[in-house]
Design a protein that fits this description.
By secondary structure, this protein is mainly alpha-helical. Helices cover 73% and strands 0% of the residues. The model has no long low-confidence stretch (mean pLDDT 96).
Amino acid sequence: MQQPIKDIVAAWFGGDSSLLEVCTDQPECAWVAVLEILQRNLSSDEEALLAAGPLENLLALHGGVFIDRVERAAASDPRFNYLLGGVWRSGIPEEIWNRIQAARREVW
């Protein structure tokens, strides 16, 4: 059964790591949740957790499905582009990784 996005987002802000499971089992929900979380006023620690956690996992597991959206978001949304700078390769296929590197402006 699919969790409502608002519950996934609230759980993430509450310190729950279930968004990582959502990346595996419900990637479309995870994508929407990442974008929703990014709209909030995040601390630098929260940005790092979002980039190197759910976004990185989503791209490692389902990068082929999401890379076009990632490139569009990186081109149109400076906050998303910055977030993409905190993603490490860790299991992301080379073709997807090359596109991520081309899309982001800054690595942190």
